[in-house]
């Protein structure tokens, strides 16, 4: 079955259930027609979702299963990880809600690695509370990197704006020491390949931001641009990757500038995410690029302040689902294309003449 014909199984982790996770998941799956396009597989608790379904007066019907491999294509499937009652305290994290967030993420990731689901979409978590319970990572990205044994890149995407960040969840005081010429080169290469494989952009143009105000002003406000960022860009450009910069971050995110590029590499979290969330908050998707498996999430957090009020906007979560599906299909088709290109062409009667090419007639 080709990637176009394959009905994608979307694994969904529930995040912190005292936030807006279950609400946006159910809102994103409210139309009966969703199962025509993909098979949802939620890793959570039947009793929890029934309770929250009644709060929001949703009409969902869940297919409760014990293993993700039992998922049915025409149903909203729920892998019932917790069979006991759960105590819901909407609007604040609890030990129970944090434990389920960890259990759900781990079970969904294991299913992804086993091929029981095709892609992973993660609802928001409370990183601080999870680390208190022994979770060793400041977010999904580090967890997935450890699981898959490969470095990823935080990549925020919409149709018109795509922003990656060189350093993820680290203190601002540590940013400078965590960038290097080799690291930036690797990240630009990864970003370039991601745009080609996962987003079908044949010759990506990548803008790279400077670290310091005004991109260092020629060394007057820091030397990282001169010593690290610019040499990395120049070396890659000379080797065929269309990377440009470094650009001053304060003036870059204007439509007439960023729309000239297919993606942007920012140097640190807030430098990239602040403008991205301002420009694309309702439709933005967080994609972990460079990993062997596909994971997306909405670009917002647990939103305890509105939990239980029925006003959470599910659009970013819905976009995350369909982005994961599209990336899966793009990547599958790209790999099929590459495999076909690599296959040796048959020769006619063993004479070394390629039968696929037109031959010259005898004159």
Helices, strands, pairings?
Elements: E1 8-13, H1 21-28, H2 34-37, E2 38-44, H3 46-56, E3 62-65, E4 76-80, H4 95-114, E5 119-122, H5 127-132, H6 140-148, E6 153-157, E7 162-165, H7 181-199, E8 205-209, H8 224-238, E9 242-247, H9 249-252, H10 255-258, E10 263-266, H11 269-280, E11 285-289, E12 294-298, H12 315-342
Parallel strand pairs: 1-2, 1-5, 2-4, 3-4, 5-12, 7-10, 8-9, 8-10
Antiparallel strand pairs: 6-7, 6-11, 11-12
Helix pairs in contact: 7-8
Walk me through this protein's architecture.
The chain is α/β, with parallel strands linked by helices and 363 residues long. The chain has 12 helices and 12 strands. It has a 12-stranded mixed beta sheet, sandwiched between helices. Strand 8, helix 8 (224-238) and strand 9 (242-247) form a beta-alpha-beta unit. Mean pLDDT is 90; it is low at 353-363.
Describe the biggest sheet?
Answer: 12 strands, mixed
- Helices and strands, in order, run as EHHEHEEHEHHEEHEHEHHEHEEH
Strand order of the largest sheet: 3-4-2-1-5-12-11-6-7-10-8-9
Structural class: alpha/beta
Number of strands: 12
Q: Work out the radius of gyration.
A: 23 Å
Distance between the termini: 46 Å
Helix content: 25-40%
Detail the poorly predicted runs.
353-363
Name the shape in a single word: globular
Question: Average pLDDT, to the nearest integer?
Answer: 90
Work out the helix count: 12
């Amino acid at each position: 079955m080709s990637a176009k014909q394959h009905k994608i199984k979307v694994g969904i982790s529930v995040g912190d259930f005292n936030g807006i996770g279950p609400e946006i998941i159910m809102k994103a799956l409210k139309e009966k027609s969703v199962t025509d396009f993909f098979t949802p597989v939620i890793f959570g608790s039947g009793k929890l979702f029934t309770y929250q379904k009644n709060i929001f007066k949703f009409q969902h019907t869940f297919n409760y299963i014990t293993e993700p491999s039992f998922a049915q294509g025409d149903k909203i499937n729920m892998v019932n990880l917790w069979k006991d009652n759960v105590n819901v305290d909407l609007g604040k994290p609890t030990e129970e809600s944090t434990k389920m967030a960890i259990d759900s993420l781990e079970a969904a990731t294991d299913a992804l690695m086993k091929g029981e689901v095709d892609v992973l979409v993660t609802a928001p978590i409370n990183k601080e509370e999870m680390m208190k319970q022994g979770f060793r990572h400041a977010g999904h990205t580090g967890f997935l990197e450890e699981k898959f044994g490969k470095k990823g890149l935080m990549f925020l995407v919409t149709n018109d704006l795509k922003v990656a960040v060189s350093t993820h969840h680290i203190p601002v005081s540590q940013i400078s020491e965590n960038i290097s010429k080799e690291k930036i080169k690797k990240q630009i290469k990864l970003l370039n390949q991601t745009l080609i494989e996962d987003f079908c952009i044949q010759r990506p143009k990548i803008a790279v931001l400077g670290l310091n105000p005004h991109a260092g002003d020629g060394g007057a406000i820091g030397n990282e641009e001169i010593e690290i960022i610019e040499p990395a860009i120049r070396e890659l450009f000379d080797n065929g990757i269309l990377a440009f910069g470094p650009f001053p971050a304060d003036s870059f995110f204007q439509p007439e500038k960023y729309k000239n590029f297919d993606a942007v590499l920012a140097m640190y979290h807030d430098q990239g995410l602040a403008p991205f969330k301002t420009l694309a908050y309702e439709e933005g998707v967080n994609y972990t690029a460079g990993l062997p498996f596909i994971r997306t999430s909405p670009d917002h957090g647990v939103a305890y302040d509105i939990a239980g009020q029925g006003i959470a906007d599910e659009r970013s979560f819905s976009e995350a689902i369909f982005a994961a599906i599209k990336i899966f299909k793009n990547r599958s088709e790209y790999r099929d294309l590459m495999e076909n290109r690599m296959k040796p062409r048959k020769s006619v009667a063993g004479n070394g003449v390629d039968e696929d090419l037109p031959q010259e007639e005898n004159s």
